[in-house]
Input
Amino acid sequence: MQPRIIFMGTPAFAVPALRAVHETYGVVAVVTIPDKPQGRGLEIRGSDVKIAAEQLGITRILQPTALKDEDFIKEVTSLEPDIMCVIAFRILPRSVYTIPTLGAFNVHASLLPKFRGAAPINHAIMRGEHETGVTSFLLNDVVDTGNIITQRSIVIGQHTTAGELYEALMPLAAVCAADTCRMLLTGTAVPMPQTPADPAFAAAPKVFRETSGIDWEADVEVVRNFIRGLSPLPCAWTLWNDGLLKIYKATASSVHCETGTWKITDNTLIAGAGNGALSLDEIQLPGKKRIAATEFLRGYRGAAEGSFA
Output
């Protein structure tokens, strides 16, 4: 008998997993967010998961506004699911995640118990981690704390940005999701309690533009990790020449530059941090496009040095 699996997700990150689970076992229904205005034209558009589900021929697509809504719970119950696979979705209430007979699991983009929360990819890089991965775990009443079913790891490159790591983890999450379904269906899953989380690495709250300003007093490596951990979104920024300068990429520089100041040397924009300097390699000024700093400086006619203020 074909298993009955419900898939829940929203962004592009969850799409490869949806495809993997559907192609391997079949998905009886997809649950995602309601359509909403998106883009500059504010065109009403479905989530990436909804679009992918339609392309896969999945006809049962549920888009509840409230997960505790009785009609939604009745509809999910009527589907008689064996498994509920959740990736990058909302927090499910007990009344929903207890419906499947074999369990509801989430695939989280970190090696739990590290980096519980909405932005594990950003925080792994911002904290200078050299390894991360994905974890599948059974849902319970406390977010990201359920018993672990399986994990897959990946090396974080020295210059990897959050956007690049996001792309690298997508296929890993797909493998993890399909493998977790297999283990639950065959009865081979052996869920293990999470070890106590190190407080320094436990929380990975959502990142915001308002908290993405660079502290140039911090250690130069901390600043570099901060920049790549927020690239491309929401993007680290600093005040420069009375405007807001977004910085997408930066590398260590041997050029001396005082903390909190900048200067132009050999067509390179250098910034001074706590105990060293960075070359700001890819930047964006207000109203302008993202550009290599060397290209920007070829047409720059302003001051050759200054402070970030």
